[in-house]
């Protein structure tokens, strides 16, 4: 076990970080290469990114890795511009991450992916919680393709397969691996899985909306109430000029919670009232979005 893993344990930040092996990323690298018409720039969000080594490995895959002869590996690698985003909880691992990685969150369980639009999402989740992590990512992801390294028994999990069916996700197993000879050994046998949302995916926002707002309304026009915002208090009276960004974030969170509370209140109304008011579930969805 290397010094970084020891430090993580000593700081009580061991959130089941099993560093991803290079051999597990090779099929992902190949898949990105062969399925992009423009490969010079793309964005990746690594959830549970550890020390960010996945980005480094993808940028420096062994040039001897077999690829189709039609590709010039050197020119492809030199043209790579990966826009790197990460979610990681461990402060120790965050400190070890390269400065070109943009941190968009820490505690994944307390975050939403709906607003984080990426080309790709990658995740090698903690295996004790892999079902919850997989379902959350598949429900909320706003991207073209998700790559995950998860226990091979995922195929028999009804919760995961239900989400796959709901979003009409195409799945492809890119390889099978284990951690028997890894930097941090484990008995887990894993699949490298490609989840392809494509252009016919159900909106992650729509799924989130359906799960959080159980509203029964007929097809009609939404009230103009939702199209007009009430006037806010003078912003200068609310913002702490000594910590402007923090104040703006706090105001945003307050407004968001108020908005969600108002939408939740609609849920309590009888369907006949909603019909009489001309409330339409699709317009509520669009309004909140």
How many domains? The number is 2
How can the largest sheet be summarized?
7 strands, mixed
CATH homologous superfamily placement of the largest domain: Vaccinia Virus protein VP39
Structural class: alpha/beta
What is the approximate shape? Answer: globular
Q: How many distinct beta strands?
A: 7
The CATH topology annotation of the largest domain reads as Rossmann fold
Instruction: Please identify the top-level CATH class of the largest domain.
Output: Alpha Beta
Which structural traits does this protein have?
289 residues; 7 strands
General description of the model:
The chain has 289 residues and is α/β, with parallel strands linked by helices. It folds into two domains: 3-203, Vaccinia Virus protein VP39 (Rossmann fold, 3-Layer(aba) Sandwich), CATH 3.40.50.150; 213-288, no CATH class. The protein has helices spanning 3-10, 22-34, 53-59, 73-79, 91-96, 130-140, 158-167, 204-212, 235-238, 244-267, 271-277, 281-288, and strands at residues 42-47, 82-87, 102-105, 120-123, 145-151, 170-179, 186-196. The protein has a seven-stranded mixed β-sheet with strand order 3-2-1-4-5-7-6, sandwiched between helices.
């Amino acid at each position: 076990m290397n010094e970084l893993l020891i430090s993580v344990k000593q700081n009580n930040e061991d959130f089941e970080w099993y560093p991803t092996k290079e051999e597990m990323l090779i099929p992902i690298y190949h898949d990105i290469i062969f399925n992009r018409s423009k490969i010079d720039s793309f964005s990746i969000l690594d959830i549970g990114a550890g020390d960010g080594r996945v980005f480094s490995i993808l940028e420096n895959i062994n040039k001897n890795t077999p690829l189709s002869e039609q590709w010039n590996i050197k020119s492809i690698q030199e043209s790579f511009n990966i826009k790197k985003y990460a979610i990681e909880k461990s402060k120790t691992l965050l400190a070890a991450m390269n400065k070109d990685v943009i941190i968009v969150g820490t505690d994944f369980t307390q975050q939403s992916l709906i607003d984080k639009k990426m080309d790709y999402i990658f995740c090698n989740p903690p295996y004790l919680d892999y079902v919850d992590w997989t379902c959350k990512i598949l429900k909320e992801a706003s991207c073209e393709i998700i790559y995950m390294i998860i226990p091979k028994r995922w195929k028999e999990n009804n919760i995961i397969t239900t989400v796959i069916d709901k979003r009409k996700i195409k799945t492809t197993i890119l390889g099978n691996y284990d951690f028997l000879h890894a930097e941090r050994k484990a008995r887990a046998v894993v699949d490298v899985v490609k989840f392809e949302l494509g252009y016919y995916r159900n909106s992650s926002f729509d799924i989130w909306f359906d799960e959080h707002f159980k509203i029964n309304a007929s097809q009609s026009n939404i009230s103009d109430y939702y199209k007009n915002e009430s006037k806010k208090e003078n912003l200068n009276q609310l913002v702490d000029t000594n910590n402007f960004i923090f104040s703006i974030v706090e105001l945003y969170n307050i407004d968001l919670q108020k908005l969600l509370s108002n939408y939740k209140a609609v849920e309590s109304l009888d369907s006949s009232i909603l019909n009489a008011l001309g409330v339409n579930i699709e317009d509520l969805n669009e309004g909140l979005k």
